[in-house]
Amino acid sequence: MAFFTAVAMYFVPLSAVAQQDAVFPKATLEIETRSGARHKFQVELAETDPLRQRGLMFRNEMAPDAGMLFTYKRDRLISMWMANTYLPLDMLFIESNGRISRIVENTIPLSRETISSRKRARGILELNAGTARRLGLSVGDIVLHERFE
Q: What gap in Å lies between CA 21 and CA 34, rounded to an integer?
């Protein structure tokens, strides 16, 4: 009986999170490639712990020019996972100056595998899987947004 109680307690918070309507502020950002091309995205901002914890969980679709930008006040090692995230994503780890330091393409939905920035970063931009390749985005490209210097 204790096992089933523990399992039930584990799933209650997840279902409660799924039912909450998180309100994310929205913004526009651009990515400038080394070739000078610029790509514009409409992003939701995850700037608080509750919004960062929620992220893109439980979503079934995202517009091609949309994304979610996770930002932090200071540089840090950042680790993410795809638990409760149904969309495959490209994750772009961003330094405080806006430079992309790492790109992880085509993450696996619902995976609990840790995805790390590998070095200190200020934020992460999550885009639909395949976007980085389609637009030719690469490490060293610059994310233009007020959260980065």
A: 38
Single-letter residue type at 83: A
Q: Contact 29/43 with Cβ under 8 angstroms? A: yes
- Its pTM surpasses 0.70: yes
Residue 46 CB-density burial (10 A; 0-12 exposed, 13-18 middle, 19+ buried): buried
In a domain, 130, yes or no: yes
Q: Give yes or no for a contact between 39 and 31, defined as CB atoms under 8 angstroms apart.
A: yes
CA-nearest of 60, 138, 135 to 92 is 138
**Average of per-residue pLDDT across 75-85:** 95
Q: What is the CATH number of the domain that holds 121?
A: 2.60.120.1140
C-alpha 67/C-alpha 90 separation (Å) is 10
